[in-house]
Amino acid sequence: MDVLGELVGESPALEAVKANIRRLLARQPGARRLPSILIQGETGTGKGLVARLIHRGGPRHAGPFVDVNCAAIPEPLLEAELFGFERGAFTDARRAKPGLFQTAHHGTIFLDEVGLLPEPLQAKLLKVIEERAVRRLGATATEPVDAWIISATNTDLQTAIQDRRFREDLYHRLAVLTLRLPALRERQRDGVLLAQRFLARACADYGLPEKSLAPSAHARLLAYPWPGNIRELFNVIERVALLAEGAVVTAEMLALPEAPEIRLAPARPAAVSFDDAMREHLLTTLAQTRWNISRTAALLGISRNTLRARIERLGLRADAAPAIARPRADRVAEPAPRPSAPTPAPVAAPSAIRWENRRVTLMRALLIRPGADTGLSDTSRALEMLVDKVRTFGGRIEEMSPRGIGAAFGLDPAEDAARRAAHAAMAIQKAAERAHQGDGERFTVKIGIHVGQVLVGRSGPTAEIDADAKRAQWSVLEAILAPATAGDTLVSGAAAPFLERRFHLARSGASGAEPVYTLVGREGGGLSPEGRMAAFVGRRQELELLRSRLASIRAGHGQIVGIVGEAGLGKSRLLYEFRQTLRGEHVAYLEGHCLSYGAGIAYLPVLEVLRHACRLTDADTPEGIARKLQAGLKRIGIGPAGALPYLLQFLGVKGETDELAMISPDAIQSRIFEILRRMCVNGSRLRPLIIAVEDLHWVDTASE
Length: 704
Fold this sequence. Notes:
Layout: H1 12-26, E1 37-40, H2 47-57, E2 65-69, H3 75-83, E3 84-85, E4 97-98, H4 100-103, E5 107-112, H5 119-131, E6 133-134, E7 143-144, E8 147-153, H6 157-162, H7 168-174, E9 177-180, H8 190-205, E10 212-213, H9 215-223, H10 229-243, E11 248-249, H11 251-254, H12 274-288, H13 293-300, H14 304-314, E12 354-368, H15 376-392, E13 396-401, E14 404-409, H16 417-437, E15 444-459, E16 462-465, H17 467-481, E17 489-492, E18 505-511, E19 514-519, H18 540-554, H19 571-580, E20 588-593, H20 604-613, H21 622-635, H22 640-651, H23 665-686, E21 689-694
Parallel strand pairs: 1-8, 1-9, 2-5, 5-8, 10-11, 15-17, 20-21
Antiparallel strand pairs: 3-4, 6-7, 12-14, 12-15, 13-14, 15-16, 17-19, 18-19
Helix pairs in contact: 8-10, 13-14, 15-16, 21-22, 22-23
């Protein structure tokens, strides 16, 4: 079985990485001492996965794999976590504890974000690597350790060395072999392959019907620069699988922001072979020591005989070493001119604070780890995952501790805040299941969801929950979670009405006078609890009102009707029942939807109405879209020749729009609006036209 099968992709950049890893593993079958490996790449490129795959395919696969996030552990505790401590070494050291290096004995230790290690600890890590022994805090003797060291960083360590933020000798110890992982934007169509795999996996994990990606989604995935790389892609696809309606995922459903300005890494040379990389590394180190064999061997952590053998095998010569630039002494730098005093920036006037009562969904997620003595390093990865999932589904972190997080959904008005919190909880529980199936850190979570009316203060763009109200709501969640067991997601009685139409809830007890429910099922379909359409009663008057407005339309009087009400009162159901009464009648009924995550997508509901009017589907090719638009325009008496290029431009379809290249954007926009207006007028002359737009409070600015 190929251990690299989990590295999905076919791009040359990824294939070069796979080839280097295979070559590395093939050369270490029975080595007594394994070379340190440094994995470099941007955040989210899969450095942790590559480290695990190297461990699985290497000679230490039977030993432990210890994952350490150097950036997540507070500096005062990092030494104790890495090297261990004796009883009484500090105030809370009630008993001795081995360090993570000792835990990784005869296995692999993965030092993630090694570039962020504080400088005092860098010296101690260097000593451990050189002596292959650790001394616990408070101990007088060292203990031998034998661990394969794999490290990773997303920072430029060469720059850090120049800035004296990272020790050069430690770098040479860690970077005996280096691997650079390409960013997702450098991997051509690998992003689409990964998205398809993630989508199939999410649908299978959550028991959802199979979904596929539309051609427009393919194009959007390839155009987006993915600053968060594979991690961001996975979260986007998981969110879409849970929230998107229909079997085909379109570009609009992805709800990707406009391309952010990202800081690109410096251009790097094309991938080189394993021998070329070793040759370059040896030449650089030899040049630094002026070909002093003893010093070079010491820097590289190998014997002099091994170094001589590599020099001979690779055919290295002293005259081939790269020259080291030295500062010139024949020029005296002129003193720089004294900078002028900076002009103080104007102080902005304080914004007025506005208070309002708002319904907010609160969620608390608590980590549960086996064993009472759990270090901070054991929870850092899990905490990162909790934060990631909450933010993916639109929540905001309100509290954080080593044991868990508290989050709020709906600080900005949103009808689906509770639904998003429930989906975030499901994604968290699914991530915990995957952790138990893999070789990473294992954890379980218990989650509570509650909806409460709280006072929210807003100053400028920032919204904050009143402190007293927040404490009261957190106490409700704490009472709900007190009897919960690992893996439970509990829902308060106040939150249940906002979830029961979409999720399967089971009564599990009570917290005081309030019932408590367990979230046990995925989101259901339809407009009713668990997808079953309940009887429609008590809305005859509203239906008659809508029918009377239709009669006015038939008489030639246009109507605008607004349906307003709180979440869960049945606004969508009323429209559904009204549409059912139109069956068999000569009426055109078109729908558009505004989405909470689509406020940044220009003309989203207008585009949906146009697609419905012309019977466009996500499976249509550009040629098929053009044919359907032509037929639709002819049907309502509009000549396609003058209108088709503008509608194709509006829909984002390439081709047949070259004639618009010389026209200003404002003129194109005005012409598109005029064509859409004529389509509505001409269509309404053939038969009454009803355009229903749901969730108008989320309408994008352009459509408004």
